[in-house]
Recover the amino acids of this structure.
C-alpha cells in the first residue's frame, strides 16, 4: 500500500510538470499578501510570424491576487535566448520553421511560465519562380501567389546566396518534391546557367544552395524531374543527349545512351522532356518521353527495375489481304518545337501534346496522344495520335489545359486555343493578345486555372513582364500585369503546395 501511494504521488508530480504553464512561488516571509499572477486570457499556443518582418505578440490578460499592488515583469525567450523584456514581444524572425518560445511573467513572489510555438512559414511555397538574365548575370525572382507588384521578390536567389557566382546567361530550371517517408517532404529547385555550364541544386523553400556546383560540358537546354516522389531523379537535355542524376549525386551521366541508341542510332534529342503516367485498372505505368529530331521519332522510356526505350508508332491496315497491320511513324519528316504533358488527379500526365514543324513544307502541327499509348509491353504499340495543323503564324510555345484535352499555343505576342478533340484544321482567333512589342518566353498554368505568361519587351534592362489570366471560362480575364519587373525572362514555373 505504501509503495502504491508513493507511485501515485510520483505520477501526480510528473503530470503537473508537463503542463505548458505554471507558477513558481518565490516568497520567503509571510508579512505581505502574495502578488500572484493569474492569467485570464492566455495567448494562443501557436503564433505565426513572417520572415524578415516584425510581428507583435501581445502578453496575456491577467489579474493580481487581491491586495497586491505590483506590476509583473516580462521575459520572452525564443530558442533558449532572451529576446525581449518588454510587455509585448516585437519579434523579427531570421530563420524559417517552428521555434520553441516561452513567456515568463514574474513578481517578487513568483513566476508564471507559458510555453508556445512561433511558426515562421517558408516564403516560397505558393507562387511563381521567374528565371531571367540581367546585366550579364542570372537572377531567380519570386512572385507570391495573389500578390501585388510591390511584393515581387527580385533576385531572391542572390539575396539568399550572396557568395554564389551567377555570372552568365540563364539556361533552364526545374522543381520537384521529394518525400522520403510519411510526414516528411522537401521541395527542390535546380538552376543551370553560364558558360561553362554550372548547375546548382537548392531548397525550393528557402532558396539556399544545398550542393556544390555541378558541371556540364554543354549548355543545359532542359531540366526535368521524374519518378516516384521517394525515388525522384533529375534529367537533362544537354548537347542533344539525355543525362540523369540521383537527387544526392553531383556528377551527371548518360546512363540511357545505350538504350536510346538501340532504337534511334545517331539520335539528336530536341529540347523537351515530359512525364507520362498511365492508369490501367489498378496498375500504374510511368516514365518520360523525348523527341529525336534526327530521326523524327517520339521516344518513350519506362521507369522501373527494367528500363525500356521505344518509338511511338500508329498501326494501319495491311495493303495485302489478311496481312498484319503495318506500323507508321505519325511524325515522319518533322522536328519538335515544344512538348508538354497534361491531365488531372489520377490522370496527371495522362496526355502528351507536341508542337511540330514539318520540314518539307514548313507547316506547323499540334499533336496529342494518351499516356496509354506509352504503356504497352509489345515492341509494336499502336498509338492513337490526334494531329491538327496550326495556321496562325510561327508558334513558339505550348501549354496544355488542365484536362490535357486542349492546347494553348503561343506565337510572338498571342496565345491561341486549340481543341484537340477536333482533328481537322479550323480558323482560330487569338485567345489572348499581349501589348504590342511583347514576346512570350514561357507559360505556366495552375490547378485553379490561372495562366501566367512571362514575356519580354525590346531593349535591355528590366524588360521582363508577368501577365496572369483567369482561364476558367471561355473568355480569359486579365487578373494583373506586372510590367518591367525583372530582366529578360527565360522560364517561369508556378509552385503550388503539392510541389
Amino acid at each position: 500500500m505504501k509503495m502504491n501511494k508513493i507511485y501515485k504521488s510520483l505520477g501526480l508530480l510528473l503530470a503537473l510538470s508537463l503542463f505548458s504553464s505554471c507558477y513558481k512561488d518565490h516568497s520567503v516571509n509571510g508579512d505581505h499578501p502574495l502578488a500572484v499572477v493569474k492569467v485570464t486570457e492566455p495567448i494562443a499556443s501557436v503564433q505565426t510570424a513572417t520572415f524578415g518582418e516584425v510581428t507583435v505578440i501581445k502578453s496575456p490578460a491577467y489579474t493580481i491576487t487581491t491586495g497586491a499592488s505590483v506590476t509583473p515583469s516580462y521575459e520572452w525567450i525564443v530558442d533558449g535566448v532572451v529576446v525581449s523584456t518588454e510587455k509585448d514581444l516585437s519579434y523579427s524572425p531570421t530563420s524559417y520553421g517552428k521555434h520553441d518560445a516561452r513567456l515568463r511573467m514574474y513578481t517578487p513572489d513568483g513566476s508564471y511560465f507559458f510555453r508556445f510555438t512561433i511558426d515562421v512559414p517558408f516564403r516560397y511555397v505558393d507562387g511563381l519562380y521567374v528565371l531571367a538574365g540581367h546585366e550579364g548575370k542570372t537572377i531567380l525572382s519570386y512572385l507570391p501567389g495573389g500578390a501585388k507588384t510591390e511584393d515581387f521578390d527580385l533576385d531572391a536567389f542572390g539575396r539568399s546566396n550572396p557568395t554564389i557566382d551567377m555570372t552568365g546567361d540563364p539556361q533552364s530550371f526545374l522543381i520537384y518534391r521529394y518525400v522520403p517517408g510519411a510526414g516528411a517532404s522537401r521541395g527542390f529547385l535546380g538552376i543551370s546557367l553560364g558558360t561553362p555550364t554550372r548547375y546548382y541544386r537548392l531548397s525550393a523553400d528557402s532558396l539556399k544552395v544545398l550542393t556544390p556546383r555541378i558541371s556540364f560540358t554543354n549548355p543545359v537546354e532542359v531540366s526535368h524531374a521524374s519518378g516516384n516522389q521517394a525515388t525522384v531523379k533529375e534529367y537533362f537535355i544537354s548537347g542533344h543527349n539525355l543525362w540523369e542524376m540521383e537527387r544526392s549525386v553531383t556528377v551527371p551521366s548518360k546512363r540511357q545512351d545505350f538504350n536510346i541508341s538501340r532504337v534511334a542510332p545517331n539520335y539528336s534529342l530536341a529540347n523537351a522532356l515530359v512525364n507520362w503516367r498511365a492508369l490501367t485498372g489498378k496498375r500504374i505505368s510511368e516514365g518520360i518521353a523525348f523527341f529525336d529530331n534526327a530521326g523524327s521519332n517520339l521516344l518513350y522510356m519506362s521507369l522501373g527495375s527494367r528500363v525500356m526505350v521505344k518509338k511511338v508508332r500508329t498501326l494501319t491496315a495491311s495493303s495485302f489481304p489478311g496481312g498484319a497491320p503495318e506500323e507508321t511513324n505519325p511524325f515522319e519528316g518533322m522536328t519538335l518545337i515544344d512538348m508538354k504533358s497534361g491531365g488531372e488527379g489520377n490522370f496527371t500526365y495522362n496526355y502528351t501534346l507536341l508542337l511540330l514543324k514539318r520540314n518539307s513544307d514548313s507547316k506547323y502541327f499540334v499533336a496529342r496522344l494518351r499516356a496509354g499509348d506509352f504503356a504497352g509491353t509489345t515492341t509494336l504499340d499502336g498509338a492513337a495520335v490526334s494531329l491538327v495543323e496550326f495556321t496562325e503564324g510561327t508558334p513558339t510555345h505550348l501549354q496544355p489545359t488542365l484536362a490535357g484535352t486542349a492546347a494553348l499555343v503561343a506565337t510572338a505576342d498571342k496565345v491561341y486555343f486549340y481543341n484537340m478533340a477536333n482533328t481537322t484544321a479550323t480558323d482560330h482567333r487569338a485567345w489572348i493578345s499581349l501589348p504590342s512589342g511583347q514576346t512570350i518566353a514561357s507559360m505556366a498554368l495552375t490547378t485553379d486555372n490561372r495562366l501566367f505568361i512571362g514575356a519580354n519587351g525590346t531593349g535591355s534592362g528590366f524588360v521582363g513582364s508577368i501577365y496572369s489570366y483567369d482561364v476558367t471560362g471561355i473568355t480569359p480575364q486579365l487578373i494583373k500585369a506586372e510590367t518591367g519587373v525583372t530582366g529578360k525572362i527565360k522560364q517561369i514555373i508556378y509552385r503550388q503546395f503539392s510541389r
